[in-house]
Amino acid sequence: MKTEFVPQHDLPRDYSGNCGWGDEPDRNEASMTRVITTHELTKQFKTHTAVDALNLDVPKGHVYGFLGPNGSGKSTTMKMILGLTQPTSGDIEILGEPLTRASRTKLLPSIGSMIEAPPGYGHLTGRENMRIVQDMLDLSTAQIDHALATVRLTGQENKLVRNYSLGMKQRLGIAMALARNPALLILDEPTNGLDPAGIEEIRMLLMDLASQGITVMVSSHLLDEIDKMASVLGILSSGKMIFQGSRDQLFEKSVPDLIIETSDPQAALAQGLTATRVPEGIRMSGIDKDQT
């Protein structure tokens, strides 16, 4: 028989919902300008609440990691921010302006996005796909060339997209989002399905974009990957924000895993981990006698 005592360590136990930006002395007021703010943002589908009273703060010039398991409400939130679906209630502010049907047309040129699957027609080349974007948005060839160079597709743009690797398709999608030089880039799971080399390419690209002043909001269900690129985190669970703040704030308040194995859990409890003295956050799991 084996019993494990594992403390809950993924999130700070005392998190209160306050970002606490003022506690960081190296951040000045200008650097913390909010690019996206939501207030009590909620989306319901019949009896299911996909996003539940979400208060989101995305600071300017950062990679904001929007983290949560599949089905936690990340994509729905991004679609509401882009005006692709209407919230049930709550408010959204983008680049200092409330998002309304009237303001959406004005705001969209400042926003680039890639939601869910990367765009692109497989029977066309990368350049031909970009030309569609160029014609739709009335962009110059120089802007298209710059976007392709930014995502490191120069020299690959004349290949058919169906012959691209998944990583190249993701970068083409990001190039389309970058074509009009947006202030805000919203990407839904851009590393999903990529091999380690492809993930690293996307990670370095997004960090480089943030260093140029572009605010990047990127969703993922992988904490390890988001931790490597994002300076600010928002973590969703069942549509609710359970943490928002810097990486340091998350990990400073976390506690490490502790696993205790014993062949006699009752004796172990008697030595100090009694039912009334089990520390907060520690849970016990094991095999019942009738299962052995």
UniProtKB/TrEMBL annotation:
Record has rRNA-binding as a keyword: no
Stretches assigned to the ABC transporter domain: 36-263
One Pfam family in the UniProt entry: ABC_tran
Keyword Nucleotide-binding: yes
Keyword entries, A-Z: ATP-binding, Nucleotide-binding, Transport
Region (Disordered): 1-26
GO MF annotations, alphabetized: ATP binding; ATP hydrolysis activity
InterPro entries from the UniProt entry: AAA+_ATPase (IPR003593), ABC_transporter-like_ATP-bd (IPR003439), ABC_transporter-like_CS (IPR017871), P-loop_NTPase (IPR027417)
Stated family: Belongs to the ABC transporter superfamily.
Protein name: ABC transporter, ATP-binding protein
Organism field: Brevibacterium mcbrellneri ATCC 49030
